[in-house]
Amino acid sequence: MTIQHTDDHRTSPFRSERVAAGLLLLAAVLGLVVANVVIGPAVLDFMGAHIMIEAIAFDISVSHFASDGLLAVFFFIVAVELRRELVIGELNSLSKAALPAIAAIGGVVVPALVYLLFTAGTNVVDGWPIPTATDIAFALGVLAIFGSALPTRVRVFLMALAVLDDLVAILIIAFFFTTGVQFASIGFAAIAITAFGALSRLLRPRSPWLLSRRAQWPIIVTMIVLAVAAWFFTYQSGVHATIAGVALGFVISRRPGGRAVHAIEPWSNGIILPVFAFSAALVVIPSVAPSELSPAFWGILVALPVGKLIGITVAGVLGGVIFRRRSGGLAIADLIPVAALGGIGFTVSLLMNELAFRGDRGIADEGVLAVLLGSAIAIVIAAVLVSLRARHYKRISPPASRRPQASPRPEPGRSPSATA
Questions:
Q1: Which pLDDT tens digit goes with each residue over 189-228?
Q2: Which letter does DSSP use for residue 419 in this model?
Q3: What whole-number distance in Å separates Cα of residue 380 and Cα of residue 22?
Q4: Alpha-carbon dihedral angle through residues 329, 333, 337, 338, given to the nearest 10 degrees
Q5: Which domain holds residue 89?
Q6: pLDDT over 90 at 378, yes or no
Q7: Cα–Cα distance between 183 and 173 in angstroms, integer?
Q8: Which end of the chain is less packed: N or C, by CB atoms within 10 Å?
Q9: pLDDT-derived band at 247, boundaries 50, 70, 90
Q10: Which residues lie below 8 Å from residue 352, measured CB to CB, with a gap of 6+?
Q11: Residue 157 placed within a domain
């Protein structure tokens, strides 16, 4: 997702941030509805069915294939874009990264503390990572719908913050949700990942081994096989399988990585993320009074919209004071809508919820409802704040000068300088 193609439909409507956000919301609502109608039990049974390949001791449920398998592709895209930001993008120097990083830290620490306030002394404290995530696809979609009049610097700051937030989420998954590590499988995964990265160097424009486009296909097919092998061995190792997508995204050469993201992005936005959202939202709404809901439910529900709003705003202002300038070029009135957008947890929060409460289906279901409701509240708050701020910019700026004209969409592998 790049700064310049907010709604580029020239190649695929699924590159549009508005379409991506709409599909995510539709899939989640559909999942919640399906789980609570007459066909719900049959669908839930199907999602719990197992895919088994005895010859290689592979066993995974359909629902886990959505979260551990399909979502690895999404994390591959995140890692490619994150690496690019750290190398040549909006986070390629300490001065550029400092303010969004401080705001991102506030957006992680405060929601976690809010959650712990609700759950202290209970058996659900392990759910503290759930409200720390920001769904960049959803946040950018809301910004595209309600904030088209906002200056580009607002979007750049949001993307930088969300990218750093994704990095924190990756580290949390790697360090807090890894159990029973099988080091032999990790070794095989590392070999596959290394070979994948080495082969990608052959596809660079200036590679001395550069081949014709037709001759590149055997290399590409081999890389796909290595990527599947890396995912398989990571899954078998006990490390969460999405980390394989992260590792592959970090090792792939930049230009081939850009082309891969260009090719995969419509599939990720149009199929992978909606399928995961549908699967995660297949929750039977419990027939209990509000007072009987778990502290985890209330912790998530409050921490996402409120904790993120407070944490990002306060940390962003403090960062501006420390560096004696406004937060990344943002006035406080611009920072607050960005903070509200950060409260849209959704995709990664749903994944964190599944990982944190995998041993208690009842609490996990309440967590899903809390993520959906908390993100919905954040969407409403953000839509109002972004609309008000956009109206302000419409009043003070003529339409022609409000935003720079969009640059032509770059060819695959030649992404513009700001991506997420």
A1: 999 999 999 999 888 666 555 556 666 888 899 999 999 9
A2: B
A3: 14
A4: 20
A5: 19-178+240-397
A6: yes
A7: 18
A8: N
A9: very high
A10: 127, 129, 130, 132, 133, 169, 172, 173
A11: yes
Q: Contact 43/35 with Cβ under 8 angstroms?
A: yes
Q: Tell me if 217 is assigned to some domain.
A: no
Threshold 0.85, pTM exceeds: no
411 CB-near residues (< 8 Å, 6+ apart): none
Q: Render pLDDT for 155-177 as a digit per residue (tens, 0 to 9).
A: 888 888 887 887 888 888 888 88
Q: Which residues pair with 2 in a beta bridge?
A: 419
Q: How confident is the model at residue 6 (pLDDT cuts 50, 70, 90)?
A: very low
Q: How far is CA 320 from CA 56, 275, 315, 411, in A?
A: 54, 40, 9, 36
Identify residue 166 by its one-letter amino acid code. Answer: D
Q: Which two tokens stand for residue 130?
A: 């759930």
Inter-residue contact 66 to 73 (CB < 8 Å): no
DSSP 410: P
Q: Considering the domain boundaries, does residue 76 fall inside one?
A: yes
Name the residue with tokens 């992260």: 246
CATH of the domain at 99: 1.20.1530.10
Domain count along the chain = 1
**Is the per-residue pLDDT at 5 higher than 60?**
no
pLDDT tens by residue, 65-86: 888 888 899 889 988 988 888 8
pLDDT the model gives residue 175: 82
Burial 341-365 (b: 16+ CB within 10 A, else e): bbbbbbbbbbbbbbbbbeeeeebbb
The helix/strand/coil state of 328 is coil
Q: Is the pLDDT confidence value at 402 over 60?
A: no
What pLDDT is attached to residue 11? 62
From CA 120, how far away is CA 116, in angstroms rounded?
A: 5
User: What are the CA-CA distances from residue 152 to residues 91, 228, 293, 385, 393 (Å)?
Assistant: 16, 38, 42, 17, 12
Helix or strand holding residue 77 (H, E): helix 71-88
